[in-house]
Design brief:
Blueprint: E1 6-10, H1 17-30, E2 37-41, H2 44-54, E3 59-63, H3 80-85, E4 90-93, H4 96-101, H5 106-118, E5 122-127, H6 131-135, H7 139-151, E6 163-166, H8 180-198, H9 200-205, E7 207-211, H10 219-223, E8 230-233, H11 240-249
Parallel strand pairs: 1-2, 1-8, 2-3, 3-4, 4-5, 5-6, 6-7, 7-8
Helix pairs in contact: 1-2, 1-11, 5-7, 7-8
The chain binds phosphoenolpyruvate.
Phosphoenolpyruvate binds near residues 211, 235 and 236.
Length: about 250
C-alpha cells in the first residue's frame, strides 16, 4: 500500500504576522516541486496571513489546536468553524506540549479530533511516550492507550482524513531522535492498534508520521522505514532552508 508522505511544520508559539509572511515567501518557491504533501501548522494569529500567502501553492494550511465545542464560554479557545472559515485544512490535536502543560488528556484529544472531523478538518493526532515511560518499558502500552483513546467512537470512514504523529516526548526539541528502527517499531505498534480497531486494510492506509528532532540529516533514514509516512517538524520548520531540506529529503 503506498501512502503519500506528509511533512507538516509545527511552528508552536513562534512567528508574528510579519515573520510569517517573510518565512512563507521564502519557503513557497523552495518546496514547490515537493514529492511529499507539505503543510504548515501556524499560531492562530498567523492563520489568515498564511492562508492568503499559500493560496494556490502546494503548501497546506494547518492550525495547532481546536476546541470540541461549536461555541460558548471557553475563553482562549478556537472552534472548528472558526478554523474552517479561514480555510484551515489540518489541525494538530494532542501535541505533547498540550498534554504536558495544558492538561490535555486522551479524552479531550478524542473530543477535539471528533470536532475537527465534524467540520471536515483533518486532525494530526499526536501520541508518544515520556522518557520515564520509555525507560520503564512502557512505550508500547502508552501509545496503544493513547491511540485507542484518541480514536474512541471515530468512524472508519474518517480514517482517510486523519494523520497520526508518533512523537516520543523525550525527542521533541531536544536534538535526540529515536533511531529509525525504534521509531518504525513503535509506529508499527500504533498501526497494529488501528488494525485491531478498524481492520488490517484500514491500518495499511492510515498515514503515521514521526516527530521529534527530525531534520535534514535524519529525514532520509527515518523515511526509508516502511511504517514512517512523513514527519511533524518543530524546530526545523522555523527556517525556510531547513524546512525545505526536510521536505525534499522525504522522497
Ligand atoms: C514537535 O513539536 O512536534 C516537534 C517534533 O518538535 P521538534 O522537531 O523541534 O523536535
Amino acid at each position: 500500500m503506498s501512502r503519500l508522505p506528509i511533512i507538516a511544520g509545527n511552528w508552536k508559539m513562534n512567528n508574528t504576522i510579519k515573520e510569517t509572511k517573510a518565512l512563507l515567501k521564502e519557503l513557497i518557491p523552495l518546496v514547490k516541486d515537493a514529492k511529499a504533501e507539505v503543510a504548515v501548522c501556524v499560531p492562530y494569529t498567523s492563520i489568515a496571513a498564511a492562508g492568503r500567502l499559500i493560496k494556490g501553492t502546494n503548501i497546506k494550511l494547518g492550525a495547532e489546536n481546536v476546541h470540541w465545542s461549536d461555541k460558548g464560554a471557553f475563553t482562549g479557545e478556537i472552534s472548528a468553524d472558526m478554523l474552517k472559515e479561514l480555510k484551515v485544512e489540518y489541525v494538530i490535536v494532542g501535541h505533547s506540549e498540550r498534554r504536558q502543560y495544558f492538561g490535555e488528556t486522551d479524552e479531550t484529544v478524542n473530543k477535539r479530533a471528533k470536532a475537527a472531523l465534524g467540520r471536515k478538518l483533518k486532525p494530526i493526532i499526536c501520541v508518544g511516550e515520556l522518557l520515564s515511560e520509555r525507560e520503564s518499558g512502557q512505550t508500547d502500552n502508552v501509545v496503544i492507550r493513547q491511540t485507542k483513546g484518541a480514536f474512541e467512537g471515530i468512524d472508519k470512514a474518517d480514517l482517510a482524513d486523519i494523520v497520526i504523529a508518533y512523537e516520543p516526548v523525550w525527542a521533541i526539541g531536544t536534538g535526540k531522535t529515536a533511531t529509525a528502527d525504534d521509531a518504525d517499531k513503535t509506529i508499527s505498534v500504533i498501526r497494529n492498534t488501528i488494525g485491531e480497531i478498524y481492520g488490517k486494510a484500514a491500518a495499511s492506509t492510515i498515514r503515521i508520521q514521526y516527530g521529534g528532532s527530525m531534520n535534514a540529516k535524519n529525514v532520509a533514514e527515518l523515511m526509508s522505514k516502511p511504517n514512517i509516512d512523513g514527519g511533524l517538524i518543530g524546530g526545523a520548520s522555523l527556517k525556510a532552508e531547513d524546512f525545505k531540506n526536510v521536505v525534499l529529503g522525504a522522497k
